[in-house]
Amino acid sequence: MNKSELVERLAERAKITKKRAEQVVNLVFEQMTEALQRGDRIEIRGFGSFTSKSYEAYTGRNPRTGETIHVPAKRLPFFKVGKELKERVDYPRGRPGVSGGNSHHEYVDDDDDDEADDRADGGAQLG
Amino acid sequence: MADGSPTNFSSDAVGRTLTKAEFVEAVYSKIGLSRRDSAEVIELLFESVKETLARGEAVKISGFGNFIVREKKARTGRNPQTGNAIQITARRVLTFKPSQVLKDMLNK
Fold first, then answer.
1. Is residue A120 part of a domain?
2. ipTM of the complex model
3. Closest residue on chain B to A35 (Cα)
4. Do A36 and A85 have their domain in common?
5. What pTM was computed for the model?
């Protein structure tokens, strides 16, 4: 999803015009950029947090040519994913909650618990 | 003397934190939605991003950066305290790659 798709999605869901949605999206990311420029933290609950770190200048070396290179001081942004989003991104892999963590257990059908399987194995043919 | 070791950085955090409340305030004052609608639109914005990522799809914000979902294979790790081998299951993780524009903005 790119920015214009996000704008469309937001316009649809919030029932506002695309123009407004675009203003909102631009405003939010501008504010975030400005905050990082000031050296501020950003904390968006349920999503994650952004920080910036400053690195000192150092003299490095190109390992291939042995050439000395000067790496200037710089600032880099970092993102740390929040707990809720971290779990939502990972959840489709089938972790907590799904069949009590029995990840090695293979299901062929969509039975919702282990007992259903055992009953079927018990040989009682439905009929 | 700086030697490029991974410890030559410092966190820039000086106590100020930007939160959703400020996004809401900016939408209210600059775009002219009511406070209630501003709050809702900010919620929906982040919810739309989260839903997309939860499906495993990347979200690319030009001028800011890309949020990318990466598949990590299962591997055998080690508890650094006990040295015991432990199985780390396959997982999906979210990473953020800042755009060159954002990096340049931080170094102007």
1. no
2. 0.84
3. B18
4. no
5. 0.76
Split into its structural domains, chain A has a count of: 2
Task: Select from A32, A35, A88 the Cβ nearest to the Cβ of B50.
Answer: A88
Cβ-contact B97, B68 below 8 angstroms: yes
Task: Express each pLDDT in B50-93 by its tens digit.
Answer: 999 999 999 999 999 999 999 989 999 898 889 899 888 899 99
The domain of A53 spans 42-104
Q: CB-based burial of residue A33 (10 Å sphere; 0-12 exposed, 13-18 middle, 19+ buried)?
A: buried
Same domain, A65 and A53: yes
Claim to verify: residue A19 and residue A48 sit in the same structural domain: no
Residue of B nearest to A78 (CA): B96
Kindly state whether residue A109 falls inside one of the protein's structural domains.
no
In a domain, A122, yes or no: no
Please tell me which of the candidates B4, B18, B98 has its beta carbon nearest to residue A71: B4
Which residues, other chains included, contact A50 with Cβ-Cβ below 8 Å and sequence gap of 6+? A32, A35, A36, A41, A42, A77, A78, A79, A80, B96
User: Do A49 and A23 belong to one domain?
Assistant: no
Q: Are B23 and B40 in contact (CB under 8 A)?
A: no
Low-confidence ranges of chain A (pLDDT < 50): 97-127
- Residue B9: CB atoms within 10 A of its CB come to 15
